[in-house]
Amino acid sequence: MDLNNKDTHAYALLHNAYVVNHIREFEEPLLRAGVPLMTQAAAAIAHVACGVLASRPENRPRNQRIVVLCGSGNNGGDGLYAGAILADKGFDVCAIAVGATLHDGGLAALLQAGGKLFHLCDFFDTPDSCDGSIEGHIVKSTPAEAVELVSRADVVLDAITGIGAQGPLRGVAKELVNAINHSEAWQSCTQSTDRAHMQCDCTESPRPSVIAVDAPSGIGVDDGSMPGDMLAADVTITFGALKPCLILPPACFSCGRIIVVDFDFPLHTASPVARAMDADIARKTIRLPQHTDSKYSRGVVGLITGSAQYPGAAVLSAEAAARSNVGMVRYLGPDRASNMVLAQLPEAVLSPGRVQSWIVGSGVPDTDDAYDTQREHIASLLKRYTDDAAGTDLHDVDTVEIGAAGNNDPERNDIPSSHHGSATDIPLCVDAGALSLLPQRVSGRVIITPHSGELSRLLKRYGETVTAQEINAEPYRWARRIQQFTGSTVLLKGACTIVVGPDTNGDIRTLTVDSATSWLATAGAGDVLAGVMGALLAQTEAMTDSNSSTPISTVDIAASAAFIHGNAARAAAGMRPWSLTEHIRRYDKNVNFQVTQPSTIGQPIVASELIGSLPQVVEALFSDSVS
Ligand SMILES: NC(=O)C1=CN([C@@H]2O[C@H](COP(=O)(O)OP(=O)(O)OC[C@H]3O[C@@H](n4cnc5c(N)ncnc54)[C@H](OP(=O)(O)O)[C@@H]3O)[C@@H](O)[C@H]2O)[C@@H](O)CC1
Ligand SMILES: [K+]
């Protein structure tokens, strides 16, 4: 795969997610030309099912019972044809119909191959094609019997709904999926939703492996929401292109490993709604040192972080920045925090001077209840980032009267001259307490890094009343909304982080970053992320100064910081680096279907441990071990 060319089909197939309307546009001419897409899809599903069966724990000696949950649309048709292929191979296959009808051809094929059908609907309409020869192979069943069948299966194909799903599962489909999730087989398996931990820890009585056909039924295909009951998958086999739900939270946590069947869709003709972040993008944000370098040319980060109340955030953000490949860190803050920074990082410079990026707000109180000098300084800096402040020289930060030290750094003029620019020239990241100081409207060069609670408060300022819980249920929707309100680049923190903002052409670009581990949900992790962000912003600025590369969008830089941060957490927790290609694969005959993962589950970490891992994560970006 040519990872250097973002336009290649192979790259788009594994990274770019397209909405249902685009998928329909892609498939339409192929179907019109008579390309047997359903047959191809079914063959791939059957092959994947065989692989999954072969990879299941050996304490299930038969490993041959397959249940297909079928809806009445083409998704059900895929499942039925796949069931027919598997029945032909000698597996014990039955389908469970949740609707009043089924795909005619698919059902006929299944029955002819020796499969059975159980239907749950009182008004099931047996197709004419199913004549008397298959009598006894179509059986009316109850939900309880269906759950029993499912529980005794080795593999379940979830073919209830695909891209034709409308809203949450309803009727019999909802009832069945709900009952399966509450069945003993499912309840006895505790499964982490962290993809890296994904393994069934009940080896004595493993539940069936679930293969979702195209997408797990019941999830919001276009927006990654989970509006109701759904069956979490171990593997999702998807057709033609990634769907947004496969990479957007929260749905992405219920999709398992993803296998994409290539139908040669002209992917380059449509804009993806979201893209999966990978090491290749992160690598481009690292400026390797050169023999002509000075500390200034490698990037200088300015931090207005920490406070008298939370001085630890100053240490974490400053050290994380210093360890993420920059020449210098300037820290500006109250005495207590400054002293702590200096004790931990004697290399830090505590005087004002020129910087190539600003990080503000980590560890700063978020209200003006008590007077705080940091808030005052940040407010004064942020004023220059409002639309009407364009043209202000931001390099003379000493005029902002930040910190106790007022001496000019004699070497400050070593910062490249291109940085005598306007207000939006120095990229800035607004974190934590500074979010409440954000001007109404800023440029895309301003990154905001809220978690859902902070985003809830921020949205209120723009007239939207939405709780953190509601944001967690639809993070993509709310990340886009705040991006539209503010104009900024938005990094919405979460187990899968979403980054939305303008690309270098001004078009909105969304990246999802899935490298984190749930061990990362710990105090101070956000301060470390802010430091990494500052370092990447400063060094990409330094790259632009030396004209050594094409411009990198702020979205990519923000996503890269989250990616590196996530992998640092994984390293600190003793886990392997996250790998996109391990998680999302193109279908071919040799694709690996392993459901359980031998990787360690990792161990608890504290935020300061991430910092020590940052240099090795940066180094690993340039080796082949991360992708
Ligand atoms: N893309 C490609 O190239 C290819 C696509 N292919 C496949 O076609 C699939 C799309 O098929 P599709 O258009 O027939 O829609 P599909 O997903 O079966 O859903 C419609 C059915 O679901 C039902 N239903 C809807 N919402 C529901 C709910 N909330 N709760 C319960 N039921 C609900 C709805 O019921 P109704 O509303 O009609 O009562 C109807 O019966 C696609 O995902 C892929 O698998 C492959 O064959 C080959 C190549
Ligand atoms: K499905």
TrEMBL record:
K(+) binds at N75, D158, S217. It catalyses: (6R)-NADPHX = (6S)-NADPHX; (6S)-NADPHX + ADP = AMP + phosphate + NADPH + H(+); (6S)-NADHX + ADP = AMP + phosphate + NADH + H(+); (6R)-NADHX = (6S)-NADHX. GO terms for molecular function: ADP-dependent NAD(P)H-hydrate dehydratase activity; ATP binding; kinase activity; metal ion binding; NAD(P)HX epimerase activity. Catalyzes the epimerization of the S- and R-forms of NAD(P)HX, a damaged form of NAD(P)H that is a result of enzymatic or heat-dependent hydration. This is a prerequisite for the S-specific NAD(P)H-hydrate dehydratase to allow the repair of both epimers of NAD(P)HX. AMP binds at K493, G494, A495, C496, T497, G526. PANTHER family: ATP-DEPENDENT (S)-NAD(P)H-HYDRATE DEHYDRATASE, ATP-DEPENDENT (S)-NAD(P)H-HYDRATE DEHYDRATASE FAMILY MEMBER. Residues 61-119 form the Rhodanese domain. It comes from the Bacteria. Binds 1 potassium ion per subunit. (6S)-NADPHX binds at residues 74-78, 162-168, 214, 313, 451, 527. Its EC number is 4.2.1.136, 5.1.99.6. Belongs to the NnrD/CARKD family. This is Multifunctional fusion protein. Residues 23-271 form the YjeF N-terminal domain. Residues 278-621 form the YjeF C-terminal domain. It comes from Bifidobacterium tsurumiense. Its cofactor is Mg(2+); K(+).
